[in-house]
């Protein structure tokens, strides 16, 4: 486990006591941490770099050239993904789906809750051999949806409810929001499917075709800017495949988000359930 001067913030303090010989804090040097992990992976180890989304931006070049171009088995545990509120404008983790999604050989996984986070980490370490990013929000893990617990399969989403008319395709923390949206729409008499995307890269094209067969509207929900994000990727695929379904993207605007309470910011940016 590798961190860049964030053992407490990333939750690695206990790990450092349990496994001191497996823990490395390289200081405030995310670029070095990434290349260090590449070296460990090239040597046959399985490094996990735990880092804030906003700080990983500094290591874009190292991710691209040192990890992904060589298809090295490095797991990026990306904390503070999405809106972080009180940490300030510079710490909003709202660009990682965009900047990681541009890099060939990178896979991106976004869990809906605590158990799926554990399952995704195990999958990335034990069942996949290449660059693997897991992104999750700040704060307590979601403890809902434990009745939905399909094994993680590469590039495959998880269908929570399959109906017709409207399909909600949500990424990570937005599954909880999408579930609340579904409850509101059901009360208004709509038929609503709910799908946990799980993988942002590669996207699950099979489920998109499935939605296009019996839905009029596909809604993507993500806590990331639109440009380069999950919704844009889905839109591109739908248009490229000439699928007859409308797509509505719920995402953050291509802008910087100010400091503030997360719930207030979600309402202001239009990504809360009520909006």
Task: Explain what you see.
35% of the residues lie in helices and 21% in strands. The protein has ten helices and twelve strands. It has a five-stranded mixed sheet, sandwiched between helices. The chain has a five-stranded mixed sheet with strand order 7-9-8-11-12, sandwiched between helices. The protein is globular, with a radius of gyration of 18 Å. The termini are far apart.
- Overall mean pLDDT stands at 96
Given the C-alpha coordinates, what overall shape results? Answer: globular
**How would a crystallographer describe the biggest sheet?**
5 strands, mixed
How does the helix and strand content classify structurally? alpha/beta
Rg (CA only): 18 Å
Order of strands side by side in the largest beta sheet? 3-4-6-5-10
Distance between the termini: 39 Å
Q: Please count the beta strands (DSSP E, at least 2 residues each).
A: 12
Would you identify the regions where 5 or more consecutive residues have pLDDT less than 50? none
Order of helices and strands: EHEHEHHEHEHEEEHEEHEHEH
> What is the count of DSSP helices, taking H or I runs of 4+ residues?
10
User: Helix share of residues?
Assistant: 25-40%
What proportion strand?
Answer: 15-25%
């Amino acid at each position: 486990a590798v961190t860049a001067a964030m053992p407490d913030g990333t939750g690695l303090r206990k790990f450092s006591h349990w496994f001191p010989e497996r823990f490395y804090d390289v200081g405030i040097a995310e670029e070095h941490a990434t290349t260090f992990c590449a070296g460990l992976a090239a040597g046959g180890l399985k490094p996990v770099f735990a880092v804030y989304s906003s700080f990983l931006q500094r290591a874009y070049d190292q991710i691209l050239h040192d990890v992904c171009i060589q298809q090295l088995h490095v797991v990026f545990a990306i904390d503070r993904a999405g809106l972080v509120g009180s940490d300030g404008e510079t710490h909003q983790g709202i660009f990682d789906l965009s900047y990681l999604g541009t890099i060939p050989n990178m896979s991106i996984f976004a869990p809906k809750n605590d158990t799926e986070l554990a399952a995704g980490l195990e999958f990335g370490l034990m069942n996949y051999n290449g660059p693997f990013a897991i992104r999750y929000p700040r704060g307590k893990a979601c403890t809902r949806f434990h009745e939905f617990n399909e094994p993680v399969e590469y590039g495959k989403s998880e269908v929570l409810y399959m109906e017709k008319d409207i399909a909600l395709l949500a990424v990570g923390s937005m599954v909880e929001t999408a579930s609340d949206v579904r409850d509101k729409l059901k009360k208004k008499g709509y038929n609503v499917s709910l799908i946990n995307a799980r993988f942002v890269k590669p996207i699950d094209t099979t489920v998109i075709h499935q939605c296009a067969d019996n839905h009029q509207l596909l809604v993507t929900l993500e806590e990331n800017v639109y440009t380069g994000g999950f919704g844009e990727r889905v839109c591109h695929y739908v248009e490229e495949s000439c699928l007859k379904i409308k797509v509505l993207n719920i995402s953050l605007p291509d802008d910087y988000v100010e400091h503030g309470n997360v719930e207030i910011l979600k309402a202001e940016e239009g990504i809360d359930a009520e909006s």
